[in-house]
Amino acid sequence: MTLITILIWTLTCCSFTGCSGQVTVTQPAVITSTPGSTVALTCKTNPAVHSRCYNGQSTSHCMSWYQQKPGQPPQLLVRHVRINHSGTAARFSGSGSSTDFTLTISGVQAQDEAVYYCLGYNSDGTYTFGGGTKLIVDSGVVRPTLTVLPPSPEELQQGSATLVCLASGGSPSQWKLSWKVGGSSTTTPASHSLEVLGSDGRFSWSSTLNLPADQWKKVDSVTCEASLSGQSSVTQTLDPHSCSV
Questions:
Q1: Is the pLDDT of residue 60 over 90?
Q2: Are residues 86 and 162 in the same domain?
Q3: Which of 10, 175, 201, 214 is the most buried (most CB within 10 A)?
């Protein structure tokens, strides 16, 4: 289920139990870690989570942790504060009581990069989600390889030109793709895909630019650029006149 679905579910739970506007669940927005290290994600509730949640007496999920990766629904990792859900890797462990809870990841892997949400079961019977902590796994800077795909002759005959920039093998996931048409930044909006994490711990993603066929035929060049703060850009340029039409 999506985060929106979870929020609707949360509101539904509140409608049955009577939500208290004073209940808050606080998480840090971003934490950066490196492969192989140990990271602790914290969650603080106000008021305290019901004691039955961490003394083994409750049948509800109480304090739970969810992991959400780009383009995927949240996955339950830990329930009842410290009980790993079926399928959760042993490197994940939960702890805490009262108002302070922690999800610890031992031996962080690149695939652990995601947003982590804690869900607290409160003493008034309501459930509340935290705002989520984005875990960034810094594997070091690796410049992506760019490939620009030209429009097809069939599409050009229809009066439009779609260009796709494929970025592969980059790290971290914060590399951003942009376009230049004829050497200048374009005001034409481009669509961007979500990054995909490969088994090697590096990311791939894409950007799509749509131009009128006439503009494509007139410009000298179209360039895709990958940029990351503090790093020199990676570019790949396509010459429309070298492409068969």
A1: no
A2: no
A3: 175
Does 95 share its domain with 203? no
pTM (2 d.p.): 0.58
Buried b (16+ CB within 10 A) or exposed e, 159-195: eebebbbbbeebbbbebebbbbbeeeebeeeeeebeb
Number of domains in the chain: 2
Provide the edge-to-edge strand list for the sheet that holds 92-97. Answer: 24-26, 39-46, 100-105, 92-97
Provide the token pair at 123: 């003493």
- Do residues 42 and 114 touch, judged by C-beta distance below 8 A? no
Q: What is the CATH number of the domain that holds 77?
A: 2.60.40.10
Structure tokens, 30: 């971003």
Question: pLDDT, tens digit, for every residue of 40-50?
Answer: 999 998 888 77
